[in-house]
Write a structure and sequence with these properties.
With 146 residues, this protein is of the alpha+beta class. The protein has two helices and six strands.
């Protein structure tokens, strides 16, 4: 088992060789068809020069939830689903040491194209979690690269 506990994650073929998610320390809480919930702790090496979460770290975290929701947890022999475009809105600064949670949900699926919304929450000591960012992903299912 790795230091981050990634080896203990519930089975999802996408995580088998996902070294970025392992480095982020992502934990998979729930995955269903069109849905994923993940968490991670905001560590010092994820901060920018202002001492708050680097936007790229928040984006990568949300992108992992997006990928998990897009791709079946049973795997696919022939196809993968990837981002065709995304938008992210940062609403609050990410505070070091807090736990982040991303909740990804499919909104629409038409043929090979889909739309997913991902909310990123931040824990707040003694209060309810707050929305840190909103991410909307557009997906496209394509043949697996050979």
């Amino acid at each position: 088992m790795s230091e981050t506990g990634v080896d203990a994650l519930p089975a999802h073929p996408l995580l088998k060789n996902d070294y970025a998610s392992e480095w982020l320390g992502i934990e998979l809480l729930k995955v269903d068809d069109g849905h994923a919930t993940i968490t991670m702790k905001l560590r010092q090496e994820m901060l920018n020069g202002f001492g708050i979460a680097h936007g790229g770290m928040i984006f990568a975290f949300a992108d992992t939830a997006f990928a998990l929701a897009c791709n079946p947890h049973t795997g696919s022999a022939d196809t993968i689903t990837v981002a065709s475009g995304v938008d992210i809105n940062f609403l609050k600064p990410g505070i070091p040491g807090r736990t982040l949670t991303a909740v990804a949900d499919r909104r629409q699926q038409q043929g090979r194209s889909g739309i997913y919304d991902i909310q990123i929450f931040q824990s707040v000591p003694g209060a309810e979690d707050e929305v840190l960012a909103e991410f909307r992903g557009r997906s496209r299912t394509v043949p697996k690269p050979s």
